[in-house]
Here is the input.
Amino acid sequence: MGMRENHATYKHDIADCVSSNIKLYADDTKIYSELRNPTSDIQMLQSDLDSIGHWANASQLCFNEEKCEAMRITHSRDNSSTDYTLGSTLKDVKSLKILELKF
Here is the structure.
């Protein structure tokens, strides 16, 4: 998920509002989680998205919705998708770039 921030000090407290793993790269924020129990873990990940949405509003920041994406990595042949939201529904993608590296 791409996010533009005005102050670097905001980046450190965003991690406090999620239970998923979080990575911060310059002005990008990535959250991810291994889904061991899909039903509850999907709800937890959506809850984390809701939490960072509330965090952004409280911090008077916003996420660039055009850059917000969801990617699922799986060994199974399950091609189902999940409609994660962060203000609007996140676009499902098959690959993404982090620091110009494509995954």
The longest strand covers residues 21-25. The helical segments are 10-14, 38-58.
